[in-house]
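> call design_seq(struct)
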């Protein structure tokens, strides 16, 4: 089932001098079983939007339908715990998600909260830990003495352990080194391809969008600016430039080659295709 969002509005601190309209009527369908990127400049409303998906924030207008739940203003969500199990959200700032005294307890918290025995939960922790690139030497350490990237790995493990249907990741590779970021993206792709999870990824990394995602949603000042498949999106670099987003390296290279007079079709979206295209024109000139 896809995720339907209609006329979604979110006003922070409504009716106070600090009132701020963060989402201004968003209409969206997020496809099931795909990897969707949510992009946009800082403050455009990405984190606000994704926090509605598991009922962490409630709409102040409009509604959303997700995993059989209908979420609308002033309507109490029945069995919100179950919704949070189906829709796993990894926060932008992982420290908000960590609170136990050891990493083992922190990751085991979710399953124990759902009635899994301590023994079973601890066995699950040992299964999920290598998926996020950590080993058992971390189990007894405090989550608060970890680096930013390690905290993020623990926070992701704490969500994966619940085996959610929809995985919502708010800037999951921020703070990771390039190799760590690639490993993490590969893990999300594996969960998508092999276990058919719907993945939503908030990111500022356009190379990740281009290399790993199927669908793109662009927010701008609380509004939906664009929505399309990744191929269509990257054939229009002006869409990114118009809202101050730096295109991925390959698209920047295409733009530079076009400026130098090469004829580069918009449809080219891989380095191999680009090399062949340019090589053809260089040898043709000789
Ligand atoms: N708790 C809050 N109270 C009041 N305003 C908020 C709150 N959280 C966010 N905002 C405001 O809502 C707008 C959208 O914020 P949001 O965090 O959703 O942006 P974002 O696109 O995730 O940005 P970033 O890329 O920096 O993470 C911003 O103007 C922000 O200042
Ligand atoms: Mg954010």
């Amino acid at each position: 089932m896809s995720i339907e969002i209609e006329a979604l509005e979110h006003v922070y601190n409504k009716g106070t001098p600090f009132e701020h309209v963060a989402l201004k009527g968003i209409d969206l369908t997020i496809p099931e079983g795909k990897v969707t990127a949510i992009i946009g400049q800082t403050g455009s409303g990405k984190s606000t939007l994704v926090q509605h998906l598991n009922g962490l924030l409630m709409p102040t207008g409009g509604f959303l339908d997700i995993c059989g739940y209908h979420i609308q203003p002033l309507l109490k969500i029945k069995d919100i715990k179950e919704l949070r199990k189906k829709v796993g959200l990894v926060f932008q700032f992982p420290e908000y998600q960590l609170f136990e005294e050891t990493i083992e307890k922190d990751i085991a918290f979710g399953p124990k909260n759902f009635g899994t025995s301590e023994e079973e939960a601890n066995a699950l922790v040992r299964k999920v830990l290598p998926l996020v690139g950590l080993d058992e030497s971390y189990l007894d350490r405090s989550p608060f003495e970890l680096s930013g990237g390690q905290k993020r790995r623990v926070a992701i493990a704490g969500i994966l352990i619940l085996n959610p249907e929809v995985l919502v990741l708010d800037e999951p590779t921020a703070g990771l080194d390039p190799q760590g970021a690639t490993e993490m993206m590969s893990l999300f792709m594996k969960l998508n391809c092999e276990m058919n999870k719907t993945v939503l990824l908030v990111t500022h990394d356009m190379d990740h969008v281009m290399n790993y995602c199927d669908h793109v949603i662009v927010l701008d000042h609380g509004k939906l600016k664009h929505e399309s498949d990744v191929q269509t999106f990257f054939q229009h670099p002006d869409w990114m430039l118009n809202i101050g987003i730096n295109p991925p390296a390959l698209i920047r290279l295409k733009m530079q080659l076009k400026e130098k007079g090469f004829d580069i079709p918009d449809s080219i979206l891989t380095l191999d295709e680009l090399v062949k295209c340019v090589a053809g024109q260089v040898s043709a000139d000789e």
